[in-house]
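Action item from last week, closing it out:
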Amino acid sequence: MDGQELAKQTLDQIPQANSNAKRIVGLVKEGGRITGYQLSDNSIVEKQQAVNMAKQGQIAGVGIAHRGDTEYLKSIPDGSENNNLGNLPSVSPQTQA
């Protein structure tokens, strides 16, 4: 088993993305913690809303994991570092429409 397969096993769920699914392009952080995400259509969604969207196939390239009772999104390992959530730029929550 390679590293990608091992990393995928840390995910609780890998939802099937719809053909029109958005991608996460930025992270909204407050006090160093991720509180939301900027999507490819420039909308900003809160962390839990993004988890729900991913479960419904509305966000591509992510899986769902949990820490305690909190669910969160993780990148699906694909061998590329530049699309990992941790490598995305931080955006200001004030850009909300």
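Closing note: The two ends are 44 Å apart (CA to CA).
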